[in-house]
Amino acid sequence: SQQGEEDPQALSIQEGENATMNCSYKTSINNLQWYRQNSGRGLVHLILIRSNEREKHSGRLRVTLDTSKKSSSLLITASRAADTASYFCATGNNDMRFGAGTRLTVKP
Amino acid sequence: NAGVTQTPKFQVLKTGQSMTLQCAQDMNHNSMYWYRQDPGMGLRLIYYSASEGTTDKGEVPNGYNVSRLNKREFSLRLESAAPSQTSVYFCASHRDRGADGYTFGSGTRLTVV
């Protein structure tokens, strides 16, 4: 399985702090994706990083990928209460597999 | 710009009943997917369709069937519902090119009693 595994399972921070979530996977990949899920809603795509990329930015999001360690990290800078959600990494080609996610709580 | 539309949003079934979950996308995407999400867990792939006319099993296909009716529609059928199939079901679609991710529907919350 190419399922990603996120760490930590839960993270609680204060507004304005940075949040870092990690993802490990088992097999070689073409790309790795990060998604966000607000409570009771569907997943929203945040960012895709290809296997030949090491770092990617999108607004307050920074994603890194280390294929030698089969790991990725998602950094959210200057967090806001609205960032409270579950974050998932996903890998796969035609059959994307998701980890169990990191539940991020940002306290105002 | 509807994206991915799932119906119904909520459903309660009795054990042994059957039902079909509907999914339609209006983005001309090639691939479509059905996932289930259980409390506190990630998504598990049930079935997917890489193109019109093809379907493949995912991680947890037992107890389900699918139909890719046309490029827009991908339905999931429970022939004989069981309490273990109580879950939130998500449909997703993907263009298969570029840096796009999957586009998800808002989910169907199914309870089997």
Task: Provide an overview of this structure.
The complex is a heterodimer of chains A (108) and B (113). Chain A is an all-beta fold and 108 residues long. In chain A, 0% of the residues lie in helices and 56% in strands. Chain A contains no helices and 11 strands. In chain A, strands 2, 4, 5, 9, 10 and 11 form a 6-stranded mixed beta sheet that branches. The radius of gyration of chain A is 13 Å and the shape is globular. Chain A starts with a strand and ends with a strand. With 113 residues, chain B is mostly beta strands. Helix content of chain B is 0%, strand content 50%. Chain B contains no helices and 11 strands. In chain B, strands 2, 4, 5, 6, 9, 10 and 11 form a 7-stranded mixed beta sheet that branches. In chain B, a hairpin with a 6-residue loop joins strand 5 (43-49) and strand 6 (56-57). The termini of chain B are far apart. The relative contact order of chain B is 0.33. The A-B interface holds A 1, 3, 33, 35, 40-46, 48, 50, 88, 90, 94-101 and B 4, 31, 33, 35, 40-45, 48, 50, 56, 58-59, 90, 92, 94, 99-107.
How much strand of chain A? over 45%
Percent of residues in helices of chain B comes to under 10%
User: Mean pLDDT across all residues of chain A, rounded?
Assistant: 92
Radius of gyration of chain B: 13 Å
Q: Give start-end ranges of low-pLDDT stretches of chain B.
A: none
Number of helices of chain B: 0
> Helix/strand-derived class of chain A?
mainly beta
Please provide the count of β strands of chain A. Answer: 11
Rg measurement of chain A, Å: 13 Å
Unreliable stretches of chain A, pLDDT < 50, 5 or more residues?
A: none
Order of helices and strands of chain B: EEEEEEEEEEE
User: Per the principal axes of the C-alpha atoms, what is the gross shape of chain B?
Assistant: globular
Query: What class, by secondary structure content of chain B?
Result: mainly beta
The ordered string of helix (H) and strand (E) elements of chain A is: EEEEEEEEEEE
Helix content of chain A: under 10%
Distance between the termini of chain B: 36 Å
Number of strands of chain B: 11
Oligomer: heterodimer
Measured by DSSP, the beta-strand proportion of chain B falls in over 45%
